[in-house]
Amino acid sequence: MTGGHPLIQQAEFITGSKIDGADAQPSLNIGLWKTNEAYLLAAFIRRESSFSAPIELLRSKQQIKSVTFFPSPDINTGGLGLVVSTENGIALLNLDLDHSRLSKALASEKQY
Question: Which residues contact 29 (CB under 8 A, 6 or more apart)?
Fold first, then answer.
């Protein structure tokens, strides 16, 4: 993901993926951060010169190596693909994400 990300205090940004929005700003994104205690997955709106406050979606003590969003073609949902390190190796997780409310916030920002 290019174009920056919001800062989370005492957390290191790892990677991210776009969820909603065209190439222009604003856009809805998901990011992955590492804190001292866990890995944090959060959604945020990227604007031309700033970011919204991140909204925490999940937190894991297991190491999350990457996150990718696979959008549904017609509705505000999609698959969230996570690569997670476990005691036995690597786990590939696919979570369903309904981002309707987050996309409504994005749509309201586009009106200004």
Answer: 1, 5, 16, 17, 18, 19, 43, 44, 45, 46
The domain containing residue 66 runs over which residues?
A: 11-110
Report yes or no on 6 lying in a domain: no
The predicted model scores a pTM of: 0.81
3: in domain: no
Q: Per residue in 24-34, pLDDT tens?
A: 678 888 999 99
For the chain, the domain total comes to 1
pLDDT tens-digit readout, 54-77: 889 999 999 999 999 898 888 888
